[in-house]
Write a structure and sequence with these properties.
heterodimer, A: 398 residues, mainly beta, Neuraminidase, 2 domains, 4-stranded antiparallel beta sheet, 9% helix, 42% strand, B: 161 residues, alpha/beta, Glutaredoxin, 6-stranded mixed beta sheet, 6 helices, 6 strands, 20% strand
Chain lengths: 398, 161
């Protein structure tokens, strides 16, 4: 009988370590599924840099031939940790004025919707990175994620993120709170330390990326999905002040998409040297749509153009001089096309949409890069990273 | 004494086996036509949700309540739009929500856009998304946490009961 009891015990317990192991694999961010969240950027010398995620590490690579060959990856975080790298989350990269390399990512905690914003820097051209630090000073185990990274005209490192401290505080007192909030911080010492967290706007969307861009005067500005009135998921624009002056977020899109949901699609922003705010955004008040418009914070945007409908998503925008590029993913039953529209008159008019790349595997959101007046689309796919030169395909466009 | 201990042990061991009656199955692009095929009777409610989506839990709870009110006319399928790397987290969340009795699927592609489009081309991926497919082939699709009025709208029609 004792033997039977032992056998039953063994049979019953055997699946437990396996299940725990499988769960642990995921929780440690060790899953070996394709991880598509990636960011690319050109440095001032035209070197292309790429950050991706694998096995709990942000990996940095660079290419001196426009993405044909990449260097061996360097681990930004030596110690593996969980990293958000799907949906609207991806690691970010930016450069300081003396060639510093800055990297941020969002690190999930144990509970759902929780996270910390993480930062590391390299002062030796990406050979070594500092031990990662947590940017958000509020260390409650709640949402601080969907990080966004930029460097302002004075070399300050500016980081913004989606934060739920106000929602948690309101709920603790029994008050309803719509959405989350946008917080930000900055570093005056090249990423060694960060200023105390500062609130940009209450009632933001909880699960959409924040777009950052630099204004002509060097300030960093944000374009992000807010929650206005009774769950209207339009967008807001605000300059991230680092001079102690009050912030002034303003509603910038007015489709009145009223929905208690996570759109999982944040906007894109590019600011011209003339100060024109070029925005792209998704909404579905009358069916899924991607829009382009020139933002006039506090008022509806001008030059509004419907870029895409069903199947169009995750658009980005870039500007250089009078050239404005909009790229987005267009999905169909067959797979994905990377689509492009180009304006040669500062965004007043755009040419017809055209496909500049295709994929029959999963793809990540496209990212438009400009270097030396040339535009490129960075497109991470399950079969590898692609840098698509788009100027050559559009030179003939009137 | 030993026999009683054995029965107790067997019972304890059997509990985890019965905890999930419906396994978490992958949903690939090729699986979508079967998922959205009209049911023989009543309606199939496809509850699309995501780990990141705080509105999804109460929406799932409301759909479970609706299904329990119409057990013979509603087949509820829970579909997580997160990719295959999130399998452990999705399974854990379903357990946490006590929703292991319903058929559950998880997108088999790391990017949801293609499967989103195949399920419903007029859906941009926002969650929660509720897709009702009736035996007569008609569909009702709603994005966002369902309001009481919307829940009433997706109840099985009298003629289909």
């Amino acid at each position: 009988m004792k033997r039977i009891v032992c056998l039953v015990l063994l049979l019953c317990c055997a699946p437990l370590p396996l299940a725990a192991f499988a769960q642990g694999m995921h929780m440690a961010g060790m899953a070996h599924e394709p991880e598509l969240g990636a960011s690319a950027a050109f440095d001032s010398h035209g070197e292309l840099w790429l950050v991706t995620v694998r096995d709990g590490h942000v990996l940095l690579q660079h290419s001196d031939d426009l993405g044909k060959k990449f260097s061996a990856p360097v681990e930004v975080n030596r110690s593996a940790e969980k990293i958000y790298d799907e949906g609207e989350n991806r690691p970010k990269i930016a450069f300081g004025p003396q060639g510093q390399i800055y990297v941020t990512w969002s690190h999930p905690l144990a509970g759902p919707w929780t996270g910390y914003v993480r930062f590391a820097r390299s002062l030796d051209g990406g050979k070594h990175f500092s031990t990662p630090i947590t940017v958000n000073h509020d260390l409650a185990k709640i949402t601080h994620r969907f990080d966004a990274l930029a460097v302002d005209g004075h070399g300050r490192v500016v980081v913004a993120w989606v934060d739920k401290r106000d929602e948690v505080r309101a709920e603790a007192t029994g008050k309803p709170y719509l959405g989350a909030a946008i917080y930000y911080s900055w570093s005056d010492d090249g990423g060694k330390t960060f200023a105390p967290d500062r609130k940009l706007m209450e009632h933001s969307c909880e699960c959409c990326r924040i777009a950052l861009a630099r204004e002509p005067n060097g300030d960093v500005a944000a374009f992000f999905r807010g929650v206005f009135g009774d769950n209207i998921r339009d967008h807001a624009f605000a300059v991230l002040r680092t001079d102690g002056k009050p912030v002034h977020p303003q509603r910038a899109t007015f489709e009145n998409w009223n929905i208690a949901a996570c759109p999982h699609q944040g906007p894109g922003l590019a600011i011209g040297s003339n100060g024109v705010l070029h925005g792209v955004w998704y909404e579905a008040s009358h069916g899924p749509a991607i829009w382009y418009g020139q933002l006039d914070p506090g008022h509806p945007p001008t030059h509004v153009l419907k870029i895409g409908g069903p199947g169009a998503g995750h658009a980005d925008v870039a500007v250089h001089g009078r050239d404005v590029w909009v790229a987005w993913n267009q999905v169909s039953a067959k797979g994905y096309r990377l689509m492009l529209r180009v304006s040669r008159d500062g965004g007043d008019t755009f040419d017809a949409p055209r496909a500049i790349a295709e994929a029959d595997v999963a793809v990540y959101s496209p990212q438009l890069l400009v270097h030396d007046s040339h535009a490129f689309a960075a497109w991470n796919t399950a079969s590898g990273f692609r840098l698509v030169a788009i100027d050559s395909a559009t030179k003939d466009t009137p | 004494m030993m026999r009683r201990a054995l029965v107790l042990l067997l019972l304890c061991c059997a509990l985890p086996v019965f905890a999930r009656t419906a396994p978490l199955e992958p949903l690939s692009a090729a699986d979508v036509p079967a998922l959205v095929k009209p049911p023989a009777r009543g309606e199939r409610i496809i509850a699309l949700w995501a780990l990141d989506c705080a509105y999804c839990e109460p929406n799932l709870a409301a759909l479970v309540k609706l299904q329990r009110a119409h057990p013979h006319d509603i087949r509820l399928v829970l579909v997580a739009t997160d990719g295959p790397a999130t399998r452990g987290a999705v399974a854990a969340r379903l357990e946490h929500m006590h929703m292991t009795d319903y058929p559950a699927r998880l997108y088999a592609e790391p990017n949801p856009e293609r499967i989103d489009f195949l399920i419903d081309p007029n859906w941009g991926g926002e969650t929660p998304r509720t897709l009702v497919i009736r035996a007569d082939g008609t569909r009702v699709a709603v994005s966002g946490e369902l309001t009481p009025a919307q829940l009433r709208k997706i109840e099985p029609r009298r003629s289909e009961r």
